Amino acid sequence: MITRTSRAVGPGVTILGMNPRAVRVGGLAILIVAALLALVAGLAFGGGAAGLPIGDAGPIVRWGLPTAKLIVNLTAAGMVGALVVALFALRAGEREFDVAIDTASIAAALFTVAAAATGFLIFLDVFNPAVDAGPQFGAQLGRFLVEFEVGRTWLITTVAGAALTVLTFAVRSWTGALLVAGLAIAALVPMGTQGHSGDDAFHHEAMMALILHIIGAAVWLGGLVLIVIVRPLLKRVHLADVVARYSSIALTAFVLVAVSGTVRAAIGLQDWSALLTPYGAILGVKVVALVALGLFGVRYRARLIGRMRGSDAAARAFWTLVAFELAVMGVASGAAAALARTPPPNPAPLPTIPSPAERLTGAPLPPELTIDRWLTAWNVDLLWATIAGFAVFFYLAGVWRLRRRGDAWPLYRTIMWVAGMLLLVWVTGGVVNVYQDYLFSMHMVGHMLLTMAIPVLLVAGAPVTLAARAIRKRDDGTRGGREWILWAVHSPVARVLTNPFVAAGLFIGSLWVFYYTDLFRWSLYDHLGHQWMVAHFLITGYLFATSLIGIDPVPYRLLYPGRLVLLIGVMAMHAFFGIAIMMQSGLMVAEWFGAMGRTWGPTPLEDQYTGGGIAWSIGEIPTLILAITVAIQWSRSDDRETKRRDRHADRSGDAELDEYNARLLELAAQDTRSRR
What we know:
CATH topology of the largest domain: Formate dehydrogenase/DMSO reductase fold
Radius of gyration: 30 Å
CATH class of the largest domain: Mainly Alpha
Number of helices: 28
Number of strands: 2
């Protein structure tokens, strides 16, 4: 039972409206009860816990497995959401920050146990073994955890949870919390590779949508839970600030959840008639819950947060809204767990003999590459489309904020940034993405654009300078977007990575390391490896371009002559790399590019030769643009220096020149006297 009270909790801290312990217990109870009720209802309605006629593992497994997955999802939210909100809304060294880290630690411990239980129950569900303490059972379980992908996934998740439990218990600093938050988000990635995503025709798309969905939901739900937990520790004014900052995080997470959920639902349903199936009905409940959460959050939080500082009625209304949100989030979480056990409406296709391309890529061989398909062929990568969308939105929002307060921002920088992000979407989702698994030359086109063309456009946009000017500075000891960006720019790691010689070494060295090691093979066989490849070459290209032509602040830059010399050296090494590929007599990753079964286009070896030529010739075009840009900046720098000296001379009345001439006359007079 929740009781009303008003009392002091330490110096200057007053709790209004509810008993602190009741707030915590009641909020968590609402979430858990709603989630369990939705789970049971969803399993009963959709048949997710129905017994199998053959090889049924029993009711404990049928009901225990989705319950364990639900606990995994809830504890993952508590772990990730608490860390994210602590980083962007709380102040390190204060009690509420420590409580947030403790919350993440407890959630990580529960996450570890739930992940281990999930893996064990999946083992029982798949193999239906006789459970005993004998060596045969242990050996079978060991093979499941090591040899089967689903077993390895939950083993990795369990180990990651255990490591996070220890790390969250140990860290109390900004940097430590940031590192652990990144690891916590990474620990959720393996979960997105399981479930129905692996059974869909669009496997990679479904997997990436599910990963983004899990991360967005974890941040959203976990942040709200943390707000409830730390409420008794915050002053009213500070609480309003924390809630306002969480609302911004929640809005971003809501957009991520909505976009990824829409894509995932479209892949899972594939037809409007599927909405009439039990799977579609449970999905509809989840969608309605999420839409309701978004509408309530946008409409009422905007009205209540600002009034919480001075109105008890507004505070009570807000916490009533929070209780409602927790209940609805519980329903959505339970529906999601039930949905994972409900058979999808699209039946599995009859077994067919896959083509060589289907065996390797999981998708049929595309038609022959023609000129029109350079514009019409699309296979959008949700991850990079989402990143580009957020990047363009926040950039334009920053420009709008500057213009609104009367500050100027060059139009060409905005155009460069937007063009760079659009090019990124095209490279990762257009014709390059469609054909890069089948043609080495197309893979090289994408690589050159990622590492050379796109970074030049993005660097010209000067995003760090814009962020430093547009994002409001915080003066209460917390860190927002501006503080974290400036911290990253001036961190020891950034000082090393932005060093011109280090950036150049990473830029050119990664070419050789990637293509002449198993990293290239990993990027072909594993979709996560492909995403790593895109991120790596985008970052190394950005660092190199920043060291040459960037205006964003970096610890050290070479003088313009040094930049040109460094660029010439990189151009030479880059050309040598392309020539080395062209001179190869063997096929790179022959079991991949040589086994596609293509009947159109050049032979794999001819295509590889073309790819080397692209790296040598076409890849040098952005480098030439960099050289021209450096030369122009050098010229403008000289012009600015000349104008500066002229203005100084005008102000001083050519005092320096007169002094210099007087000195020359004095020396001449001394020379004349010495001759006499």
